[in-house]
Amino acid sequence: MAEQNNGAAAEQAQFIIQRIYVKDVSFEVPGAPQVFSEAGQPQLDLNLNQKVARVADGLFEVVLGVTLTCKVGEKTIYLAEVAQAGLFQLSGFDDRTLDMMLGTYCPNVLFPYARQQVGELVAAGGFPPFYLQPINFEALYAEGLRRRAAQAQQGDGVPAEGGQA
Fold first, then answer.
1. What InterPro entries does the annotation carry (predicted)?
2. Domain assignment of residue 88, yes or no
3. What's the gap between Cα 93 and its chain centre?
4. Distance from the CA of 106 to the CA of which of 15, 34, 55, 163 falls in 20 to 30 A?
5. Cβ-contact 50, 70 below 8 angstroms
């Protein structure tokens, strides 16, 4: 009987992808066409960010932002920016699990789409292919939790949830 109750509770948690879409995209080559003859080793700088917004009860928009900047020396060769978004229906999760789902699972769903967009932008700009390597969103989420706990502890002297005094 207890197994039936646990099964019923587990069935209540739902994760549904409503829609995946490109929210914003930009590609700039500020020094074209001269940059195509630039000599030197290109330096790539990758910046990731994530935004979560509650759209309605149980409906969340998650936006994974990817910015790739290629420079030779101090000169920007190209700048690719993609804001890959999704609408996700999440219900039946406790607050901690909901936060984890929005911080890890949703970006993992969006990442392949963002990777494809960045790769296509770079290629369409006339540059050698760029393959965005896989990202460990679970590790990034854990680091974010650690930083939040440290800030909370410094801010009021009270340990964060799960922290030790």
1. SecB, SecB-like_sf
2. yes
3. 21
4. 163
5. no
Domain that holds residue 109: 14-156
Residue 144 CA to residue 103 CA, distance in Å, equals 9
pTM (2 d.p.): 0.83
Asked if the structure places residue 1 within a domain, the reply is: no
Burial class (CB in 10 A: 0-12, 13-18, 19+), 131: exposed
94-147 per-position pLDDT tens digit:
999 999 999 999 999 999 999 999 999 999 999 998 999 999 999 999 999 999
Residue 48 predicted with pLDDT over 70: yes
CATH of the domain at 60: 3.10.420.10
Computed on alpha carbons and rounded to an integer, the radius of gyration of the chain in Å comes to 20
Q: Which residues contact 55 (CB under 8 A, 6 or more apart)?
A: 61, 87
**Does 24 fall in a domain?**
yes
Structural domain includes residue 100: yes
